[in-house]
Amino acid sequence: MTKKQKRTLFRIILAAALLAALIVLDRLGTLAQLHRLVWLGLYLIPYLIIGWDILLEAGEHILHGQVFDENFLMAVATLAAFGIGEYPEAVAVMLLYQVGELFQSCAVDKSRRSITALMDIAPEYANLETPEGLAETDPEEVPVGSVILVKPGERIPLDGVVLEGESHIDTAALTGESVPRTALPGSEVISGCVNGQGTLRVRTTKAYADATVTRILELVENASSRKAKTENFITRFARWYTPLVTLCAVLLAVLPPLCFGQDWGEWIRRACIFLVVSCPCALVISVPLGFFGGIGAASRKGILVKGSNYLEAAARLSTLVFDKTGTLTKGEFKVRSVRPAAGSEAELLELAALGESFSNHPIAASIREAWGREPAPGRIQAVQEVGGQGVVALLDGKELLLGSARLLREHGVDFPPSDEAGTLVYAAWGGVYRGLILIADELKDGASEAIQAVKAAGVEKTCMLSGDRARAAEAVGRALGLDAVKAELLPQDKVAALEELLKAQPAGKTLGYVGDGLNDAPVLGRADLGIAMGSLGSDAAIEAADLVIMDDDLRKLPAAIRIARKTLRIVRQNIAFALLVKLAILVLGALGLANMWLAVFGDVGVSIIAILNSMRTLKD
């Protein structure tokens, strides 16, 4: 408990003890001999102990023009109850309202802790190597390229590359996974993770402002600012609802006595009941608390949601569209076959490796790895990468083409096309076809299981968009049980294909795109819900996606959908329950069939039940 919560608890206990003592004295007849003003003064003591802050806030809001809120309703209702002589009820209403507020505060803190636990990943210092030795330095002051020492048990302060040492890195704070990752010389390490038993010398590759830990903390801090449609509806509803019920309470208190000669005390009592039960706090707190809890439950699994609006979008998913390479497959390309049309396999492999020597694409890396040599300088010039097709370059003064069948056809090269499954890299040099290289990728672990699980979670359609050849893409689609596959797409074609799928979406349903976050930013941004996979340490993923799964485990996708749907279901339950109970008690109160205690249940009781229900979102 916070200090403020402990003070509120003390006030509640003290006021409750005084109220109980006064009720006992009243029942024994002791207070009956006292003057009415003395009796009123005695009951005002516990009332002011427990309610002075509510009265103060109501007064401050009125002075600032913010009249209609729950503080105003409680102040008016309880003071009116004093006015008609219902002293115990007035104190009890304020007392139980504060009990509900305390319970609400504790529940919000618990939900907030489930998210802000991520704040503990922020490193406090870095051991910077200087000419004078190690110096504990603020991570924000460490320049890029500096060498830092990460001791056993310390949190890695900045992204970097291991120079010396061997250890295991605990990434649980970022990914939700307890299995540590091995760090060796040459391994990339990211900030926020905990070093194991070994000491590591690390050369930093990013400034603190651009480090993974900083980007994640910004994402978490901003999550509450993006509200779901349901939250915005409740906010607008409360803005109109509170003035309306206040007006109804005034009419209920005034019209029957004025127009029909009814008893003023009885109708003021009914108006007080009306005001107490009409407080919207059960909705105003339980709905945001439900979404906050859902975001917290996701964060504990290494799933970062940028706002409750994206959690609501995930709950309404009916179509999931996947990128292939790096998302459904490992992106670890291997050369499986080298088929020269003329010359030897070694010559063809050399041509391809030289042409791909300046490319960072995984396919290029696999060809260079298969060749296993360093290219001689000066042989390759004027390298141009053609998006989705391959590479055009000059090798020893002749045009070299490496890539898809489309690339060769567009340059007028005759060749025998192949329909084998896998990625085919065709090669032509000096306008003559030289052969092809077959490169294969592997399905990511758990990919098939994840696809089946998202379907079981309620996703109606799964698709894949790929720039790869149709045969290779369709083979992956069949292996995973996808409903549709679109292949041989350039980056701009992917956006157009996604637009078509969006047009076909049913009303009220959403479409999600799952990519690796590195080269899918346009499609991630266009989808209703952009989901980045395998993006540990990827700035592009954190920027472009709405929901970031912080490791390569596709099986977290169904978990994210389950959490989102459970959250939305609980939020809807709270709205329906609160409105129905309040409406029933409002009607009973207007008819004179409800007392102040039932009104308290309609406010505080409903709030507590709704908050307890919202807390279920914290557990998946």
Q: Describe it for me?
A:
The chain starts with a helix and ends in a 5-residue tail after the last helix. With about 625 residues, it is an alpha+beta fold. About 50% of the residues lie in helices and about 15% in strands. The chain has 20 helices and 22 strands. The chain has three domains: about 5-115 and about 225-290 and about 565-620, no CATH class; about 305-320 and about 445-550, 3-Layer(aba) Sandwich (Rossmann fold); about 335-440, Calcium-transporting ATPase, cytoplasmic domain N (3-Layer(aba) Sandwich), CATH 3.40.1110.10.
Helix amount? 40-55%
Shape: elongated
The biggest beta sheet is recorded as: 7 strands, mixed
Task: Please state the CA-atom Rg, rounded to the nearest Å.
Answer: 33 Å
Strands, total number: 22
Total helix count? 20
Q: Strand order across the biggest sheet?
A: 10-22-21-20-11-18-19
Q: How many domains comprise the coordinates?
A: 3
The helix-and-strand class reads alpha+beta
Low-confidence stretches: none
Relative strand content: 15-25%
Task: Determine the N-to-C terminus distance.
Answer: 25 Å
Q: What's the mean pLDDT score?
A: 83
Q: Which features would summarize this protein structure in a list?
A:
22 strands, six-stranded antiparallel beta sheet, seven-stranded mixed beta sheet, Calcium-transporting ATPase, cytoplasmic domain N, 620 residues, Rossmann fold, 3 domains, 20 helices, 51% helix, alpha+beta
